[in-house]
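Worked example 2:
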Amino acid sequence: MAVDASVATLFDGLRSPREVVERWFGHLSLGERRSAVKRLEGGYFLKIYGYSGLWRLRTFGIEARAGREFRNLRRLRDLGFRVPDPLAWGQARTLGFISESFLLTRAVENAIELRKLIDDPKSAPFPLPGARERRRLITEFATTLARAHAEKFFIHTLRFKNLLLAREGENYVLYVIDVPFAGIWRHRLMPFAGRVRDLAVLMKGARQLLTKTERMRFARAYGADPALLRAAQAYQERHYP
């Protein structure tokens, strides 16, 4: 297990990932689900991943998704994205196959999923940003994403449920969460495909939350050429109509 010193007391007496899972989740069976999340006292989220049936057979010699997500959060932070602080993770194996794994992150307070803003904007825990702040957020996120893509790092799961709008003091910020598949190797070999998927996944939510002018602002700040936009639109219409 890897545990940051700031949360070491949370893990006092816990010697293995199995004991971590049993302490907070008991003997929970995930069934068809692949993960479960619980908020802990003190402002933390603990996520566990489940592996069953044929899915577990694919874990032989492969790092757990918890470990990949821990590493990806650090990488995204280095690239300039706002992400929950990754604080601890661990994995256990039985006969070489992953049996338990967990990830602990610091909770993002005073935040709301962008998906919820589409469904119920009045549920936001703060006044929504005005036009000027919206433009700033769009431009900053687009340029940060372009920088990540230039380094061949792709997020893969840029759904609006994985983007949080938060208010910290007087400032509005966007957080990226739930990134176990960021940085997957095939997109490094095919970076255009990685760009297309990230932009297409964003398009699905952007069409419902952003105006056409705001979407054009994003495309300009990102530096998207017409061919990339056409490919992303075709991908979005095919996979996320």
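The chain has a mean pLDDT of 91. The chain is about 45% helix and 20% strand.
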